Each structure stands twice: as C-alpha cells, then as structure tokens.
Amino acid sequence: MVRSEIEVLPGQRTPILAYAVESGGKKFLNPALLARRGDEMRVKLINHIDQPTVIHWHGLGVDSRNDGNGLDVVAPGQSMDYAFALQDRSSMYWYHPHAHGYIPQQAYHGLASLLFVEDDDEAALRKELALALGESEIPLVLQDKEFDAQGRLQYAPSAAQSFGGWVGSRLMVNLTERPHLKAGRRIVRFRILNGSNARSYRLAFLQDGKALGFYLAGTDGGLLAQPLRIDQTFLSPGQRLDVLVDFREANPTRPVTLASLPFDPMHQEGGHDMAAMDHSQHGAAQGAASPVAMAMEGDALALMRIDLEPSSTPYDRRLPARLSSLTAPAEPAGAARRMQLGHDGKGHWTINGGVFDHAAVPLTVQRGTRETWLIENAERSMPHPMHLHGFSFRVLERLGSPALVRTLAGARGLLPQDQGVVDTLQVWPGESVRIAIDFSHAHQGDQDYVFHCHTLEHAEAGMMMRYAVKA
User: Fold this and answer.
1) Residue 125: how many CB atoms within 10 A of its CB?
2) Plastocyanin-like domain spans which residues (predicted)?
3) How far separated are the first and last CA of the chain, in Å rounded?
4) Residues of the chain with pLDDT under 50
5) Could you read off the pLDDT of 274-291 as tens digits, one per residue?
6) Each residue of 305-345: pLDDT tens digit?
7) By C-alpha distance, which of 159, 192, 381 is closest to 271?
8) Which of 59, 66, 274, 290 could form a disulfide bond with 93, CB atoms 3.0-4.6 angstroms apart?
9) In what order do the strands lie in the sheet with 55-58?
10) C-alpha dist (Å) from residue 143 to 236, 238, 353
11) For 202, which DSSP code?
12) Are 470 and 367 in contact (CB under 8 A)?
C-alpha cells in the first residue's frame, strides 16, 4: 500500500492511495485479480502509508483471520500475510481497506480493486456468448469524487456529511469522467460495482431517452439460475451487478447512455439534533477555486456513452436459458432474529440501539445453524446497504418498501437482484427485509466477523457490530 499519483482529470496529477503490485516485470496500481474456484490465495500486504490499514476481501467466505474485519490492523511499516482457499461461487468480488477510523478516507482516496473468481458455470457462459474479459466483458466501477482546482481529491466531511454520507459532484466510471466506449452489435457483458462511499444509483441503459431492456445475469455472489429481463435497477454502495446487454436490439446509428435515473434518495433523518442538514448535497465544493454545480443524490445522471459499431465478424449467439444450478432459497425454521437500524439522536447510527464497540460481541451464533434475520429500518432514517462479513445470504421477502421500490418488485416484494446470492442489502427507510443465512463453514475454531452499513461514513458513525460464530 503506497502513496502515488495518476492523471484522473485531464492534464492534472491526482495524489492517491493504491495497492502496488509488481508482476512480470511490470508495476500495477490496484490490479484486478483473476482466480479460479479452489485456488489457494496468498498475498503479502506491506503497509507503506502513514496510517493503519488492512485488506477486507469483500464477499469472500474466508476465516476471520483472513477476512480483514478491522479487529486486527497493519500498522505503518508493518506487513501481514493472507492465505486462504477460494471456495466461493464465480463472481466479481472486490477488496478494500477496513481499519475502523480510516475506512472512508482510504477507500475514497483509491484503495479498492476487483477480484474475479471463475468456475465451470462462468467458463460455460463466456464460451456460449463468446465473451472476452476487457473486450466484450467490461468491468465498471462507479464512484463519485470531489476535486480542488489542482486536481487533488477532497475529503473533509463536516459533522453533517459524516452523518449523512459523503457524496461527490464528479461522477466517475473506472476513474474516468463521462467515458466513451465502443461496442459491437452483439451481447456485451458489464460487471458493475458501486464503489462510492455513500451514493446509490438507479441504473438504466437509455437510447433517445427510452430505456433499453437488458438482462440481469448475476449479483454479488454469482450467476442467477436464469437471466432476468429488466430495464432498470438500484445499486447501492458495495453491491455488484452482472448484466448482459444485447446491442442488436438498439438503433445502430444512435449512442446508448448508461445513466442513473432520478429517484427520491429518502434522506429522512428526523428527530436528531442535525435537522437542518442537507445530506444529499455533495461534499467539498467549498474547497474549489470557483463554485461548481451541486450534484444531488437521486438526480438524473449520464455516466457513460456507448457508441455502436458494426461487428467485425458475424454474431449469432443467444442467451442461454440456464446460467447456473442456483436453487430457490429455503426459509430456516424458528423465529427471525431482529436487526433494528436507527440512530440515537446524537449523530450516531445504531444497530439494535447500540453503536460499534470493537471490544463488545453482542451477537453469537453456532456454526452450522441456519437463521432468518429480519432487518428493520426506522421510518425516519436513510437507506442503509447492510453488508455481512464471512457469509453470503438469500433474500426472502421485503415489506413496507417505498413506492418507487415497489414498482420494481415482484412476488414477496423482491427486487430483481434479490433473486441471487448477495452479501450487501439495501434497506430503505420504513422497510423490513427478511433474509436467510447459513452459518456453515469449513474453518477451524471460533470465527469473529462484523455486520455493518456499507455507506462508509455510517459504519464509522456507529452502524457496525461484531458477531461471533462458535465452532
């Protein structure tokens, strides 16, 4: 982990934090890692920055020693060895810092990248659709940033922004503002990560102002059983989407725009001592040399332009009816464990009325048990993308969803991405979501993980709790 600088805005050098790797005589910053299910992963982290840090392997079901849950961190000048087997389903996972007190600023300043895990289902899909990673299969990392006049990243949240979440006015796709992509008239796969600290997106592909239908192929934890036809979907911080767009359906003479459609961000944090705040505004425009337009969360946003061009070779592939052997989720027996999301009126976000205490373990489960959790968000609150370390889970039901969310829902209030395996779940104000978790694992001894909001400022403001899995 190093301090470096790159060109983000044209003609300016932006200081960043990065994972630096040397391989094959070349040096990489924030490399995407490629692996196959069953591989042994071995990484040495050497901390060359002046802050404690640690790597969290987001979405992977590893033992807590390797999880990077922030309970043990790597001091400046020190190192840590990771070693674990990749037993998770094929998907696009990611890795980022998780040292409590430093998570938002380290991630915002660049410490994050992707980890692709492949298995037989994944290989079959790439073969069936003639997909090539980096050509017709494109990873997209969505982020929002704020820069000063010299091109330096700005991150200095006020109390209001620490409570509400930092939202930047410059929208980046793969650290590029308003990028252009050329795509053939074929099926193109996009692997999308919301890498923002706090901003959610309502994603759609638009042509001449109309939504172009596409297929949801997978979620955080891999491929669905079959593709789902949709025309829009929400994506909250920490979540990933695997989508397939058939550009043969589009007008070849007109560009397609990846956009975030307008929506109510539901920042309804009434009843605390910060009632005058506007958390939906971006972060640090006051640091710029001249005023800039404030981008509000929920505004309509153009993220990326896609220009269509004739394919060099004929393309007649069709979407397979089956993507994986994923089965419908089973509902565990017994009463649901309640997880109530709220705030204490003093600037802290809470889980079951408590704020994060690294020395306290308020929840213990037994290895091998299957539980239902009912995650309940307060009516006067904000959306919370809740992330579980150590295990993925399945969504069973949504209740009390806001009107816009209900328009996208099917049976039991489930959204399209609720059909898959997930590790991060957006819970809207006033909403209750039931999920099923299987706490089976192959690790030795007791395990220690955390459950937290992936709006990174919310986790720092208390919305995180430890939980133990007893062997």
Assistant:
1) 25
2) 26-120, 340-470
3) 34
4) 270-294
5) 333 333 443 333 333 322
6) 999 998 778 999 999 999 999 999 999 999 999 999 999 99
7) 381
8) 59
9) 33-36, 113-118, 91-97, 55-58
10) 11, 11, 31
11) E
12) yes
CB 367 within 8 A of CB 390: no
CA distance linking residue 316 with residue 333, whole number of Å? 47
Name the E strands within 291-416: 301-309, 337-343, 349-351, 363-366, 370-377, 384-388, 394-399
On whether the CB atoms of residues 415 and 405 are closer than 8 A, the answer is: yes
The position carrying tokens 């590790």 is 423
Instruction: In whole angstroms, give the CA distance from residue 91 to residue 364.
Output: 29
Tokens of 458: 């919310």
Distances (CA, A) of 319 to 72, 226, 246, 247, 316: 45, 10, 9, 13, 10
The DSSP line for 292-310 is -PPPPTTS-EEEEEEEEE-
Cα distances (angstroms) measured from residue 127 to each of 116, 121, 137:
17, 10, 12
Is this model's pTM higher than 0.90 or not? yes
Assign residue 334 a region: left if phi > 0, alpha if psi is -120 to 50, beta otherwise? left
CA distance 106 to 93: 18
List the one residue out of 213, 23, 240, 286 whose CA is nearest residue 141. Answer: 240
Provide the pLDDT for residue 54.
98
Cβ atoms of 366 and 383 within 8 Å: the answer is no
Please give the Cα distance from 320 to 124 (Å, whole number).
Answer: 10
- DSSP per-residue codes, 239-305: -EEEEEEEGGGS-TTS-EEEEE---------TTSTTTT--TTS-S-GGGSSS--PPPPTTS-EEEEE
Buried b (16+ CB within 10 A) or exposed e, 218-244: bbbbbbbeebbebebbbbbbbbbbbbb
Structure tokens, 162: 């620490």
